[in-house]
Amino acid sequence: MHQLPEPAALRESLPAVVFDLADRFSAAGFELSLVGGPVRDLFLGRVSPDLDFTTDATPEQTLAAIDGFADAVWEVGREFGTIAFRVGRDTIEVTTYRAEAYDPASRKPIVAFGTSLEDDLFRRDFSMNAMALRLPKLELVDPFGGYTDLEAGVIRTPGAPSSSFSDDPLRMMRAARFASQLGVDVHDDVRTAMVDMAERISIISAERVRDELVKLICGAHPRAGVDLLVETGLADRVLPEVSALQLETDEHHRHKDVYQHSLQVLEQAAGLETDADGPVPGPSFVLRFAALMHDVGKPATRRFEPSGSVSFRHHDVVGSKLVKKRMRALRFDNDSIKAVARLVELHMRFYGYGEAGWSDSAVRRYVNDAGDLLEFLHRLTRSDVTTRNRRKAERLAHAYDDLERRIEQLAEQEELASVRPDLDGKAIMDLLGIRPGPVVGRAYKHMLELRLDNGPMEHDDAVAALRAWWASQPESTTAPAATGD
């Protein structure tokens, strides 16, 4: 076990505002301690985005202590004892010591203010988050062995896990999130309680579950977090499509383990993310979640063929629909839902390229259908190769290299990233003498198909093609004579 950092070393790692605030509370006669995540991250050598404090001062007394010190104040958490404020670039939360109690049938705590730092720490989720540094001396208060657990890489609760999870079932999701973010494991008692109490996650709002899931997927070790959700039964309640990937292995082992394959694809996709200046800045929830969910249509489409093989026909389309349904249930925004579902729908499109090759038209359609998600699709498709057959993996990699080269070559000749018909909607209406409506949409779609099939057309050729299409449409006999040229 490492030795605890000296107060002088800790002081150098903290911003000056911490000690300025401590001086104000001390002058007012109140205790103040840095608490929870910032303390944990300090010992991990990480920079915490939060500055959370706890105090024996009431919210009213806290407001008085920061009067003239804070640049902006938010009192939305005042009922729960929390005053948030900004000093310069730092956003700070100060919360009165609490001793919470929960109604077992509700997800909302009954707040009672306390007078003891130790009691306040006892109510927190995990021992590694139940540490405080008394200010201004930076004295460590660690009544539940949080530092030892942090060093050992294990998640424990200050009290009985069953009581902690009964009070706030979201803590079970949070345990899986910390497994992902910090690469730690859960204590056996914690794991047992998660299994026994998994059904209590149902009282938690979809939005809170979603937020924990996003943090888990975007963690440094997402596979560990997902595995914990599945092993404890939490995934059965919040992400059942992933649990269902654990298909029964047939006696002849005619298909690979879909669940383990999906976890490996998730890991590989995360490894292909770029830095902030690249096309897919990591961590990317959209890419990672699409990687995890790309095969969720397989359980519903699995068929054992007479030849002895196993097929999953149209699992990409079925999976896309399942992803939409699950993400809507978890209250994701529409843009995220569309992006993940689209990637799942397209993840099989590439297969067959290496054997049959594609025409320029097929390449254009691939790019057009991917749209803004093309770079994500590149990474998802490459990540989907988990075969142990080195020759097969190399063949697929070379084929995709070739496809990307084809895309680059066409992009140099055409505006491939934003394919549009050679005639826009206004030109179509002018040429055909028609007003806005469904017919314009049909004509536009026809011209887009020609553009994808043939590449850019000369203006006169595009006009001729439009007129030829129009001559075959029933509306052409009733429309007024066109005057466009």
UniProtKB/TrEMBL annotation:
InterPro entries: HD/PDEase_dom (IPR003607), HD_domain (IPR006674), HDIG_dom (IPR006675), NT_sf (IPR043519), PolA_pol_head_dom (IPR002646), PolyA_RNA-bd (IPR032828), tRNA_adenylyltransferase (IPR014065), tRNA_CCA-adding_enzyme (IPR050124). Residues 254-475 form the HD/PDEase domain. Residues 393-420 form a coiled coil. Its cofactor is Mg(2+). SMART domains: HDc (SM00471). One of its GO terms (molecular function) is metal ion binding. GO terms for biological process: RNA repair; tRNA processing. Keywords: ATP-binding, Coiled coil, Magnesium, Metal-binding, Nucleotide-binding, Nucleotidyltransferase, RNA repair, RNA-binding, Transferase, tRNA processing. It comes from the Bacteria. NCBIfam families: HDIG, tRNA_CCA_actino. PANTHER family: MULTIFUNCTIONAL CCA PROTEIN (PTHR47545:SF1). This is Poly(A) polymerase. It comes from Zhihengliuella halotolerans.
